[in-house]
Structures are given as structure tokens and as C-alpha cells.
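Dear support,

I submitted the protein below through the web form. The confirmation email said the job was done, but the results page showed an empty box. After a refresh the structure appeared. I'm attaching both so you can tell me whether what I see now is the final result or a partial one.
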Amino acid sequence: ELAAHLEGCAWARVKCTKQDCKESPFRKDQAEHDATCGSRLVKCERCKMVVECRLLPEHEGSCPRLKIKCPNAGCHDKHSRGFMNVHLRTCAKQVVKCLQKGCHASMPRRQMTEHVKDVHVKGPRLLDAAGQLHSLLQENAKVKAAALSELRHAA
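What the results page shows now:
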């Protein structure tokens, strides 16, 4: 009789059915415990991964689908944590180093094209043009001096 009573007694302690749970609620409270047990399995609303309820906050902090703000100053884009590395490779506000040999400039990616054009394309061309102009001016001065010298000898 006692064994039969304990089998259905509302005040008897029962082991939680979840593998990692160490609690033993009263039989009358088992349904409530099952609904709130930290070891019950729940699905992340973002990525649909199944985790234990007690681990959900930790998972949410590292969930690859969690939207995060771009860390670059001035960029207001938000992307999933898993996509952020892709965004950073093209973000106009990402500070990048100039890849030209000997140049140590760093600036936001959106300014780099102008930097390369102005410093590494136009700059050398201007220096080359200035060098050519200097040579032409020197040659012109020699021709002028020779012409003046000829005029003096002819007179």
C-alpha cells in the first residue's frame, strides 16, 4: 500500500527529467519545474540553434546572427556578427594603410583612392613634368645665350 501511495503522491520528490538538472521537485510541482528548468532545451530566435535555457544568455552574446554596429567611427551600418568581417573588408570608414612602397599613410578607405591619385600618380607626374620643364628652360637659356653671342659677333 505505501509503495502504491508513493508512486502517485503529490508530495513525493521526483527527479527532473532533464539530463543536467540536479533538482528534485515535488510531484505536484513537476510540470511547473519542467516549464522553468534551466536545463530545458530552447531555440535561439536569431539563429535557431538549440541550447539549454540557462546557457541562452551566453549564447546570445556570441550568436552569429546578432546584429552589431560597425566599430568604425562614422559608420552607422549594422550587420550580423557573422557578416561583420565581410563588411569591414569594404567599409568606407575602415582605416587602411597605403600599399604604395615607402608610403606610411593611413586613412579611411574612402579617402585612399584620392590619396593614391594625388600623391602616387599626379605627384610623380608633376615631378617628372617639372624636371622636363627645368631641362627645357636650361636648354632655352643656352640657345638664347648662343644666339646673343652670335649677334654680338656679327655686329
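Response: this is the final, complete result; the empty box was a page-load delay. The radius of gyration is 39 Å.
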